[in-house]
Write a structure and sequence with these properties.
eight-stranded mixed β-sheet, 48% helix, alpha/beta, single chain, binds magnesium ion, 886 residues, binds phosphoenolpyruvate
């Protein structure tokens, strides 16, 4: 197996072997685009290097030599040639883009001799010595680990002595002087010289790029983005083209569509007379790409044409790096561009509507995380109008955030660990800041453009960011920032609007972001393909409305105990609990029925004829009793008792294991009146809404925590009797269903028997997980982390359904139900119903819906559609294979 491929050999599909950058350079070479010549050392070579830990092996060294020779032939230049030297770049590039995480070395091949040749050949010794000092700096930092600040400090010191403010004021002699200073840093720090032999420079650099796969920031990035540590990086070696060779040159980065909004059209930045690193690192603030149209119109037109070609070819928005060297355009990189969630939706919808991709392909590009990000917070309009911004920067990543200011990533991380909401404020960010950025609500930088590190990374993470706030003087050392008469320091609260780029003092109230139209369109496509419906878990009118707006086709779980809270209601509930006889029970129950009936009427009106499952009271009664002494005294007065009597009743109701105690349907076995009251309220509400609105409301009444068929048949009988009384009273009958929640292992094992008295079934995976493992839902956080660290569990089973154990019980229950009843109405309403990973398992069962909290609904709908598409594609593949075989 060969370790190296020339750019003319690979293709975009080879990203495993050539890394994303290498594969795309090969693809662009095949498209005859103006890509500088070069070759790629494979990820396999990197993996062997990291495994062998004995330096570059012979085979690789030989292949590098051979490929350098052919590069010399292609470019008609020779590495190390004193008159017209070949200069190369050495860049990392793994399968998945890890912006700025690994290392790059530019201008390789320069030394004391070739720098003179370059100066003469270009007639520009200022440029040549600038290139040389950059090589010294990058090589020193990346290859031999010399602190880059040592170089930066010398440059700043020199400039200040000369009274210069910007690098372009440096003359050839200045750079030449600095080259000597930089060489001195090598001697002073390492007691060795910068290697003058270009092949030696190259071998060292390749090793350094390989090693950078395992540097701390790359590892952190991979951990945060779920990228495997085993992939290794490729190394791209390419002829240098120089954006810093004069005013006819430049470098830039552009997207084929706006990465913040998704609007079609070239969006980017460039810098005249600069090298690519200047743009990415945010050292100089670039100009918008429109400026290129003015200064070099032909180049701009050529670039637009290539961008269009690349977008069509890759069928996605591209992020393109380019360099202009003496009025000649070169494309250095293309990749699918990172974008905000809003832009992801917009681009996906536009590409489908433009006929570039199918709806199915479009749906595969949306992720649950993008949906979460789309529903980003924004500041409340009125509050925002009243607030006065103190500075404006670039709107780099949308969203709104308020929090306490910190000036270093470490301080931000520590504050976030203490539970504070954090805004990270820096001059610019670098990959080392990643851990601080990830925990921040918002990020502000005073330097850098829309493609600077801060902007790109924040957009990727969905963190709101204002970049390039140039009027803001940020002093990281003094931990202070100021603009005009506004000054703030560590711990002060500011608000950041990533959509407008404005900063405000103090905190501004937020509301959840809404991009309903974009979301609806994608959800409509997804729902066309789904075989499994998604319902919402909700009981308040607001939550039900949110659930419906986000695509719920029904309510799978309205928890009635949530309607027992509220000042007036809780006091009736308490009176009910304290009652000792029938008479004492009746009054509070009557009062509660009034509340509940009104609630149910509201719910049924909102739901119209959509399915709506109401669950009867579930938690242990003591949860409703007062804890504070003052509340106990108030309750004593309200119920004509002494505080001592109340305390006695509270202690009677206390349980050792309340989760395993007097709760769920067990409450109804000992106090049937509670479920009877709730059922009466449900049926009366359903009749009244049916009569007044003309909808035919079919209420579904669900009994929780059932373990035996006898429990279920007893309770069903009691409820049916109540319902008959109501029908007689109203002189009106309606259809209804009585169903079982399946939440205990015994219910799973005996589901066939339980199903005899049940019209429908809903798995409560929260309790089922608790009872299957014997892990308390309330206390498992204390030990689960240890289980995860020691890999005793693959994940938190309350988050992702345990397929092996809990899943097996669910499967058994479903088999029992279908064996005894045939096709039945079966759903899932525990948290697993909203978790994409669990849904992938659940959808394979013969169930008709999953139900989850409102904000999880869109991701659930999307996951189901994506699985459906994958399954269909799989079937099609098999079919094609069979056809071929026939
Ligand atoms: C469950 O147990 O999964 C469930 C939905 O009920 P609750 O969370 O209310 O106990
Ligand atoms: Mg439960």
């Amino acid at each position: 197996m060969t370790y190296i491929y020339d750019f003319s050999e690979g293709a975009k599909e080879w990203s495993d072997l050539l890394g994303g950058k290498g594969a795309n350079l090969a693809e662009m070479t095949a498209l005859h685009l103006p890509v500088p010549n070069g070759f790629t050392i494979t990820t396999e070579a990197c993996k062997d290097y990291l495994k062998e830990s004995s330096g570059l092996n012979e085979k690789l060294i030989n292949e590098i030599r051979q490929h350098i020779q052919s590069l010399e032939q292609q470019t008609m230049k020779v590495l190390g040639d004193a008159e017209d030297p070949l200069l190369i770049s050495v860049r990392s590039g793994s399968k998945f883009s890890m912006p700025g995480m690994m290392d790059t070395i530019l201008n390789l091949g320069l030394n004391d001799e070739t720098v003179v040749g370059l100066a003469e050949k270009t007639g520009n010794s200022r440029f040549a010595y600038d290139c040389y000092r950059r090589l010294l700096q990058m090589f020193g930092d990346v290859v031999w680990g010399i602190d880059k600040n040592k170089f930066e400090d010398q440059l700043s010191f020199y400039k200040s002595q000369k009274g210069y403010t910007i690098d372009t004021e440096m003359t050839a002699e200045d750079w030449q002087y600095l080259v000597d200073v930089y060489k001195g840093i090598y001697m002073e720090t390492l007691h060795k010289h910068f290697p003058q032999n270009p092949m030696e420079q190259l071998f060292h650099s390749v090793e350094a790029v390989f090693r950078s796969w395992n540097n701390k920031r790359a590892k952190t990035y991979r951990r945060l983005h779920d990228i495997s540590d085993d992939l290794g990086t490729a190394v791209n070696i390419q002829e240098m083209v120089f954006g810093n060779s004069g005013l006819d040159s430049g470098t830039g980065v552009a997207f084929t569509r706006n990465p913040s909004t998704g609007e079609k059209g070239i969006f980017g930045e460039f810098l005249i007379n600069a090298q690519g690193e200047d743009v990415v690192a945010g050292i100089r603030t670039p100009q918008p790409i429109a400026a290129l149209k003015k200064s070099m119109p032909e180049i701009y037109a050529e670039f637009c044409e290539i961008s269009e070609q690349l977008e069509q070819h890759y069928q996605d928005m591209q992020d393109i790096e380019f360099t202009i060297e003496n009025k000649k355009l070169y494309i250095l990189q293309t990749r699918n561009g990172k974008r905000t969630a809003k832009a992801s939706f917009k681009i996906c919808i536009n590409l489908v509507e433009e006929g570039v991709i199918s709806k199915e392909a479009g749906l595969q590009r949306i992720t649950p995380t993008m949906i979460t990000q789309l529903l980003h917070p924004v500041f409340e309009e009125e509050a925002l109008k009243a607030a006065v911004p103190f500075v404006k920067g670039l709107p780099a990543s949308p969203g709104a955030a308020s929090g306490q200011v910190y000036f270093t990533a470490e301080a931000a991380k520590a504050a976030s660990d203490r539970g504070e909401k954090v805004i990270l404020v820096r001059q610019e960010t670098s990959p080392e800041d990643i851990e601080g950025m990830v925990v921040s609500e918002g990020i502000v930088t005073s330097r850098g453009g829309m493609t600077s590190h801060a902007a790109v990374v924040a957009r990727g993470m969905g963190v709101c960011c204002v970049a390039g706030c140039e009027e803001l003087q940020v002093d990281e050392f003094l931990e202070q920032a100021s603009c005009g008469d506004v000054t703030f320091g560590t711990g002060d609260v500011i608000s950041v609007d990533g959509t407008s780029g404005l900063l405000y003092q103090g905190s501004i109230p937020k509301k959840e972001g809404e991009e309903q139209e974009l979301l609806n369109k994608v959800l409509d496509w997804a729902q066309e393909l789904s075989t499994l419906e998604v319902y919402g878990n909700a009981e308040t009118p607001e939550d039900i409305q949110t659930a419906l707006k986000l695509g719920a086709k029904g309510i799978g779980l309205a928890r009635t105990e949530h309607m027992f809270f509220g000042e007036e209601r809780i006091s009736e509930v308490r009176k009910m609990i304290l009652a000792v006889d029938q008479k004492g029970l009746r009054k509070p129950l009557e009062q509660l029925k009034k509340y509940q009936k009104n609630d149910f009427k509201e719910i049924f009106q909102l739901m119209e004829e959509r399915p709506c499952t109401v669950r009867l009271l579930d938690p242990p009664l003591h949860e409703f009793l007062p804890k504070a002494e003052r509340e106990i005294e108030d309750l004593a007065i309200a119920t004509n008792r002494t505080p001592a009597q109340i305390r006695k009743r509270i202690s009677e109701l206390a349980e050792q294991n309340p989760m395993l105690g007097h709760r769920g349907c067990r409450l109804a076995v000992s106090i049937p009146q509670i479920y009877q009251m709730q059922t009466a309220a449900i049926i009366e509400a359903a009749i009244e809404v049916s009569q007044s609105s003309g909808f035919s409301v079919v209420p579904e009444i669900m009994i929780p925590l059932v373990s035996t068929d006898k429990e279920m048949s007893l309770l069903r009988k009691q409820l049916e009797e109540t319902i008959e009384v109501i029908f007689e009273l109203y002189g009106h009958r309606i259809s209804y269903k009585i169903g079982t929640m399946i939440e205990t292992p015994r219910a799973c094992l005996t589901a066939a028997e339980i199903s005899q008295s049940s019209d429908f079934f809903s798995f409560g995976t929260n309790d089922l997980t608790q009872l299957t493992y014997g892990f308390s839902r309330d206390d498992s956080a204390k030990f689960l982390n240890e289980y995860l660290n020691l890999k005793l569990l693959p994940s938190d089973p309350f988050q992702h359904l345990d397929e092996k154990g809990v899943g097996q019980l669910i499967q058994q229950a479903v088999d029992g139900i279908t064996a005894s009843k045939g096709a039945a109405q079966i759903g899932v309403c525990g948290e697993a119903g909203g978790d994409p990973q669990s849904i992938r398992f659940l959808r394979k069962l013969p169930i008709s819906y999953v139900s989850c909290s409102p904000f999880r609904i869109p991701a659930a709908i999307l996951t189901i559609a994506q699985e459906e598409i994958k399954e269909q594609a799989g079937k099609l593949k098999i079919l094609n294979k069979l056809i071929k075989e026939v």
